[in-house]
Amino acid sequence: MNRRKLSLRRPLALVGAAALGLAAALMVASPASAHHSEVDGKAVCDTETGEWVVTWTVTSFAPQGVERYKLVKADLTPAGTTVTEIRTTEGNDYPYSVDTPVVGVQRVPGDATSASLTVKAKWKKERGAHLERDAKSKTVELGGECKKDVPSTTAPTASFSPDCEGTVNVTLGNGQEATAAVKLTVSAGEFKETFTLEPGETKTDIQVPADAGEITVSQEGKEEPVGTYTWTEPENCVAPGEPEGDIELTCDEMIFTVKNPADGETVTITLTPNTGEPQTLTVAPGETKSATFPASEGLTVTPSVEGEEGEPIAWTAPDDCEPGAGGGGPELPVTGAAAGGIAGGALALLAIGAVLFYLARRRRMTFTA
Question: pLDDT tens digits, residue range 240-275?
Fold first, then answer.
């Protein structure tokens, strides 16, 4: 029996060839893995604008000893969009550090279906530069479903408009897309009114009086109020000018004068004597008007504004008058010391005259001689 001798030459040759092939593959692959770019992207929908916001991150894996690089390509889709921070650079400027990823933001229309970024890097070496062999790209699928949030028009609404006097105008509304009527109640202190509004209906003529307190608008069947409001003075309020009052006493007459400044408001005052007919003065801004009453012993005149009465004001004869003056006595000339007596009598009545508008208005009228 003849035995053939086993040869190892062929298996060793195959192993050697495989090893050479693997080494060659590693040599080819090594440079590619040593310096290249990586691109990553994430997208979120911005519901305030209805746009996709894509955040791109570019990371550089540089050759050994390289610290800076630039991009010679930075292409985007969709066309016409831009990205922050990620840009191409000309010349010898290498703006990016290999140690820090570059992050940029791209805004894309809400109906776009995808977005992409393609980059190609160039690394600065001690001598010259090294250009990335292949561009790197990333595509983010979007779906075209990003839409701007639209406020609901189904819920009831309440708005408040104050005036300078403290009154608040309340406007109620039922949503344009509401499917049923709503009952809304406006309450503030002793004020309380309920309104039923059909879908799409508004009510604009609700006035809450001054000093009523905090206003609450509530919906039937709901715990949370539709709206609340406390009066604050509007910024454009300007206090009107204050009218001035003057009382003059003579031996024969009692004269009331009201002077309204040009920036005032129309004021109406009724002067009622205890004998004789009352007189009413309506004084517009910029006007001065007077009312005269014949003097007599025991004469008093009571001022009133809008139904609110002040204290009666009594006629008192000036010091220089003849005894028994007033009520038709002989008329005496008023000169010298007599004029001083008139002024003194008017000054004596200043405290009484000051109440004229106090009860009826927040701003007072003061009387001067």
Answer: 788 888 899 999 999 999 999 988 889 999 999 999
CA distance 314 to 321: 16
Q: How many Å is the maximal CA-CA distance in the chain?
A: 181
> Left, alpha or beta for 268 (phi > 0: left; psi -120 to 50: alpha)?
beta
Tell me what percent of the chain is helix, strand and coil, each rounded to the nearest 5: 10, 40, 50
Tens digits of residue pLDDT in 269-278? 999 999 999 9
Query: Whose CA is closest to 337, among 350, 320, 356, 323?
Result: 320
Q: Which two tokens stand for residue 335?
A: 């000169």
Per-position DSSP letters for 222-282, written without gaps between them: -SS-SEEE-----TT--PPPPPEEEEEE-SSEEEEEEE--TTS--EEEEEEESSS--EEEE
> Contact 189/216 with Cβ under 8 angstroms?
no
Give the three-class secondary structure for 304: strand
The burial class, CB within 10 Å (0-12 / 13-18 / 19+), for 6 is: exposed
Mean pLDDT of 185-196: 96
Among 123, 115, 46, 113, CA closest to 75: 115
**Radius of gyration for the chain, computed over Cα atoms and rounded to the nearest angstrom:** 47
- SS3 for 146-177 is CCCCCCCCCCCEEEEEECCCCCEEEEEECCCC
Predicted confidence (pLDDT) per residue in 22-51, tens digit:
444 444 444 444 689 999 999 999 998 999
Overall average pLDDT of the 205-230 stretch: 94
- Residue where the block lists tokens 């010259």: 128
Among 92, 131, 136, smallest CA distance to 117 is for 136
Q: How far apart are CA 321 and CA 298, in angstroms?
A: 16
Beta partners for 279? 271
Residue-wise pLDDT for 316-331, tens only, equals 989 888 766 665 444 4
